[in-house]
Design a protein that fits this description.
Layout: E1 5-9, E2 16-21, E3 38-44, E4 59-65, H1 74-87, E5 94-99, H2 101-113, E6 120-124, H3 127-133, E7 138-143, E8 146-153, E9 158-162, H4 171-188, H5 197-214, H6 229-238, H7 245-262, H8 268-281, H9 294-301, E10 313-315, E11 322-324, H10 329-343
Parallel strand pairs: 2-9, 3-4, 3-5, 5-6, 6-9
Antiparallel strand pairs: 1-2, 7-8, 10-11
Length: 346
């Protein structure tokens, strides 16, 4: 058994541990509040049954949600809350989300909504969930107008990241996590590929934890965690989620580099570094999906959560990432043209 790392998300009296290691699912029960008498496990079709931890002495119900972004909806939240009520869940009990990023987003939002908030613990079984979705308390679901536009901040009581569960991931799920991992290279400007993968997972969690501790509700630097996501979410919406989230984020990171270059914020060498990390370190090479129109993408990007009153991106600079409002359509179109041309050569 490899060494277990414990990363603390420091939020004062709401601080919680994130346990990272192999074969540690049995640690989940220790993270439950002592008041809990009932456990509502929220999981998903396709998640192996052996990934659901045991909770001796507690009444456990299992609630399975559908696969696909269509099920990341308010309808699913309403259904889960009804099931919680039927199971007799009270404010003293607990929800446990077992699965990938979609499961932790949905389980967290259901827990935040039911009885106006009951405890939640996450068991992250995908790389995306471990380094992004399960940590930090952002929960939410989609509506037709955009991704994750309805949700709540609701911190878990603890998170378990059993790295053994990554061995069963599909290639698509692996790419989803690697796209998120790539962005961390630019958030902290570190060569994360120089450390072993298991330690890199823990390092990404620590980076996110430090940012969340400094800016829990995304009023400032927490927006850096959305590096690459402005185009990514637009791509997902405009392709009806046919593109894997991590692939969309990887493309979004590259596009953001071109936007920054268009605005003379970074050099061509820095753009090349983005391609080196995304393409060479993580092997996330793909063309843009066919049938896209930049005007439609710009409209979708305008609905991004960062866009308060103008088109807003997280962009690189010689001093690091910054939130940059007021980006013009001409800049976005010029960057997109450069982006398409560059992708055609790789």
């Amino acid at each position: 058994m490899s060494e277990m790392n414990e990363v603390t998300i420091n939020l004062g009296d709401r601080s919680y541990p994130v346990l990272v290691g192999r074969d540690i699912l049995h640690k989940t029960a220790s993270l439950l509040p002592s008041s809990a008498r009932r456990v509502a496990v929220v999981t998903q079709e396709g998640i192996p049954a052996q990934y659901i931890p045991e909770f001796p002495g507690l009444s456990v119900s299992v609630h399975t949600i559908g696969v696909g972004e269509d099920h990341k909806s308010l309808t699913t939240i309403a259904s889960l809350c009804s099931q919680f009520a039927q199971h007799g869940l009270t404010r003293s009990d607990v929800v446990v989300g077992v699965g990938g990023g979609m499961v932790t987003d949905v389980a967290g939002f259901a827990a935040a909504s039911y009885h106006r908030g009951i405890p939640v613990v996450h068991v992250a079984t995908s790389l995306l969930a471990m380094i992004d979705a399960a940590v930090g308390g952002k929960t939410g679901v989609n509506i037709p107008e955009g991704k994750n536009l309805v949700g709540a901040f609701w911190q878990p009581s603890g998170v378990v990241c059993d790295l053994s569960t990554l061995d069963s991931l599909s290639d698509r799920e692996t790419r989803c996590g690697l796209g998120e991992m790539a962005k961390y290279h630019f958030i902290v400007r570190e060569n994360l590929n120089e450390i072993e993968f298991d330690q890199r997972v823990a390092r990404c969690i620590q980076i996110k934890g430090d940012i969340v501790a400094a800016d829990e509700r995304e009023g400032g630097i927490r927006a850096f965690l959305n590096y690459g996501h402005t185009l990514a979410h637009a791509l997902e919406i405009d392709t009806n989620f046919s593109i894997a989230h991590g692939e969309a984020v990887a493309l979004g990171v590259l596009y953001a580099a071109h936007v920054a270059q268009q605005m003379n914020r970074i050099s061509e060498d820095r753009v090349n570094q983005h391609y080196q990390v995304v393409h060479d370190v993580y092997g996330l090479r793909r063309q843009l999906p066919e049938g896209l129109f930049i005007q439609s993408l710009i409209a979708a990007m305008g609905r991004d959560k960062k866009a308060v009153d103008s088109l807003t991106f997280v962009l690189d600079s010689v001093d690091g990432l910054e939130v940059v409002p007021g980006i013009t359509e001409s800049v976005l179109k010029g960057a997109y043209k450069d982006f398409e041309s560059r992708l055609a050569t790789v």
